[in-house]
Write a structure and sequence with these properties.
This is Bifunctional alpha,alpha-trehalose-phosphate synthase (UDP-forming)/trehalose-phosphatase. This protein has 482 residues and is of the alpha/beta class. Helix content is 48%, strand content 18%. The strands form 3 sheets. Strands 5-4-1-6-7-8-11-10-9 form a 9-stranded mixed beta sheet, sandwiched between helices. A 6-stranded parallel beta sheet has the order 14-13-12-15-16-17, sandwiched between helices. Strands 2-3 form a two-stranded antiparallel ribbon. It binds adenosine-5'-diphosphate and 6-O-phosphono-beta-D-fructofuranose.
Length: 482
């Protein structure tokens, strides 16, 4: 029976070796949460990096491979220098800032590009070692943009899909990359290339036309005689899982693993009129965390009537700490939170509760369900699944979502209160609007968003992509490698 081979930089779990035992924790991020549901239901093999360097793994490689294969996963082992130059290097110092329009953070180092090329080759070889006739290969995200053509060269017969989980930038931005040509050729080895939004599709096609000179008809590229289809597939969430977990939580009112959530519940019991504003993200400069804190400070200054009554619960999960900008952001966030709390706190009220950690799934759901408002303000975000997860957990259909128009999710969630993350005054007035919003209006908006998200789930997203890949391959049998 044929299978789907999912290929992503990281596996859905991160392995740790403690003494002589192998432990695993779930990987954080949209890609892992989303594809986990796909992997759980299908006939699939997931290829990726286990989160440890080869040096850390030492003699545990055989045991690690055994553990991975029990969950239908295969490891790509990376040496410390590869993690440094491929992952922290070209992926997160060049591509990540470039694709999120942070040109001032973008660094180009030929040594890191070489590592990116070599590591992409490693992933391609691992795929080739596992691919059997009839399998379909589904490659994910910016870390692996060369893998499609590397596989295509060796196996012209297999069907290859690629999905980008981050924005594809406008041509004027993308063209600044010294390896723009190679990146496009790498992607065009696929039969189908998917993006979250229509705009990203257009940006990509524009770059293909202007950089490669290939002709494009509607959403099909003629890549030297091979047809490559390009389309948008907005990623959804496992709506029922979030919805029913929230319903279960409401019924049982259980104790949670983290002290944070238990204390929040106690607080709400003690002060039933207080209002919680929630923000959750990886600590990433694209997520607009400093803007959000500054806007919250501005809001408290402009609307002192809310002092003592609202609280911003800000959860940030550690991310990419070896990249200097992430360490700088951590310092900046600590300082800003300290400044706001120092300025406004009273003996029994702290305006911002800030937590720098990851939370187990049940506690995350409890946080969503106890918060009256979710404030999600990225400066640029491919999709943003947190916004969708928040909506899915609102079983009473109350609550307000404040969402940046720069997040891919804003295209689908037009009933959210959409803001420009750079506009402090707008965010402040929108917070006021959210806090005063009548229940009827909250429900009206939530209902529309839930309707959309319960239809376009993560399962539907994966099915649509795979069906489209099969159709593309059937309708346009491609001759050979490009
Ligand atoms: P990204 O992929 O850029 O990290 P998304 O918003 O698309 O952003 O996805 C983030 C995912 O990570 C969500 O599924 C969310 O539930 C999860 N997540 C975010 N913060 C935490 C946290 N502190 N603890 C546990 N999971 C988290
Ligand atoms: O959404 C973009 C992304 O890079 C995903 O590939 C991943 O799920 C997430 O962000 C977390 O990033 P990292 O794997 O670098 O910790």
């Amino acid at each position: 029976m044929s299978k789907t081979i999912i290929v992503s930089n990281r596996l859905p779990v991160e392995f740790k070796i403690s003494g002589n035992r192998i432990q695993s924790t779930p990987s954080v991020g949209g890609l892992a949460t989303g594809l986990k549901s796909v992997h759980a239901t299908g006939e699939s093999l997931w290829i990726g990096w286990p989160g440890l360097t080869s040096e850390q793994i030492g003699d545990f490689d055989v045991a690690l491979n055994r553990t991975a294969s029990e969950s239908r996963m295969a490891n790509v082992f990376l040496k410390q220098a590869e993690v440094r130059d491929f992952y922290f290097g070209f992926s997160n110092k060049s591509l990540w800032p470039l694709f999120h329009y942070f040109l001032e953070y973008t660094l180009y180092d030929p040594k890191q590009w070489d590592a990116y090329y070599r590591v992409n080759q490693k992933y391609a070889e691992c795929v080739l070692a596992h691919a059997e006739e009839g399998d379909r290969i589904w490659i994910h995200d910016y870390q692996l943009m060369l893998v499609p053509s590397m596989i295509r060269e060796k196996r012209p017969d297999v069907s290859i899909g690629f999905f980008l989980h981050i924005p594809f930038p406008a041509f004027e931005i993308f063209r600044t990359c010294p390896w723009r040509d190679e990146l496009l050729s790498g992607l065009l080895g696929a039969d189908l290339i998917g993006f979250h939004t229509y705009d990203y599709v257009q940006h990509f096609l524009n770059s293909v036309k202007r950089i490669k000179g290939f002709s494009v008809k509607f959403n099909e590229v003629d890549a030297n005689g091979r047809t490559v289809k390009v389309d948008s597939f907005p990623m959804g969430v496992d709506f029922n899982k979030f919805h029913f977990s929230a319903a279960k939580y409401e019924v049982t009112g259980q104790q949670f693993q983290s002290d944070l959530v238990n204390r929040l519940q106690d607080h709400l019991k003690q002060y039933p009129d207080s209002r919680l504003i929630l923000s959750i993200d990886r600590l990433d400069y694209t997520k607009g965390i400093p803007n959000r804190i500054r806007a919250f400070q501005y809001f408290l200054e402009r609307h002192p009537e809310y002092i003592g009554k609202v609280r911003l619960v800000m959860l940030a999960v550690p991310s990419r700490e070896d990249v200097p900008q992430y360490r700088k952001l951590k310092r900046e966030t600590d300082e800003l939170v300290g400044r706001v709390n120092g300025k406004f706190a009273t003996i029994d009220w702290t305006p911002i509760w800030y937590f720098y950690r990851s939370l187990p799934y049940e506690d995350l759901v409890a946080l969503y369900t106890t918060s009256h408002i979710a404030m999600i303000t990225p400066l640029r975000d491919g999709m943003n699944l947190v916004a969708k997860e928040y909506v899915a957990t609102r079983i009473e259909r109350d609550g307000v979502l404040i969402l940046s128009e720069m997040a891919g999710a804003a295209n689908e969630l037009s009933q959210a209160l959409l803001i420009n993350p750079e506009n402090m005054n707008q965010i402040s007035e929108t917070l006021d609007q959210a806090l005063r919003m009548p229940l009827e209006e909250q429900r009206h908006r939530m209902e529309a968003m839930q309707k959309r998200l319960s239809r376009y789930t993560i399962e539907k997203w994966a099915n649509d992509f795979v069906t489209s890949l099969e159709k593309t391959v059937r309708n346009t049998p491609n001759p050979a490698a490009c």
